[in-house]
Amino acid sequence: MKRPVELWAILACLVGAELVFLGAGVLRWAAEGGADLLVLPTVLLVLVLVAAASLLTRIRIAKAGATAVAVFAALLHLLIVLGDGPGLARIVSGIVGAAHVYAVVLLNTGPMRKFLERP
């Protein structure tokens, strides 16, 4: 079956958003120092890459796993937005969190359900 456009939009939202978050972490690390600033962005990027690979290979739990990762990441970004951190980190996390919510919406569209169901 041909891969739907929604799949590519999901992958762009998930992976692209986490790469932006990692880039913001690298900028903060360069300005403030402290390697602990890169732990959360790296862990989230690895989780998102695993979810993206499962969607591309259409494994059985791809939709549930990708949804769980996207919701988890969106909630973490919401905590960053509501926390008391630097303004740039909060703005970037708000945008990245919105991208994760949009990925969850796209995961529940008809073409993606049809693509991920086994014949």
Structural commentary:
- The protein contains five helices and no strands.
- With 119 residues, it is mainly alpha-helical.
- Helix 1 (5-32) packs antiparallel against helix 4 and helix 2 (39-57) runs antiparallel to helix 3.
- The longest helix is centred in the first third of the chain and has 28 residues, at 5-32.
- It is elongated.
- The model has no long low-confidence stretch (mean pLDDT 92).
- Keywords: Membrane, Transmembrane, Transmembrane helix.
- The chain crosses the membrane at residues 7-31, 37-57, 64-82, 88-108.
Question: What does the radius of gyration come to?
Answer: 15 Å
Q: Pick out the low-confidence regions.
A: none
CA(first)-CA(last) distance: 10 Å
Number of helices: 5
Largest sheet: none
Percent of residues in β-strands: under 5%
Number of beta-strand segments:
0
Q: Tell me the helix content.
A: over 70%
Q: What shape does the CA trace take?
A: elongated
**Domain count:** 1
Oligomer: single chain
Q: Decide which structural class fits the backbone.
A: mainly alpha
Mean pLDDT: 92
What's the SSE pattern? Answer: HHHHH
Transmembrane segments: 7-31, 37-57, 64-82, 88-108
Keywords: Membrane, Transmembrane, Transmembrane helix
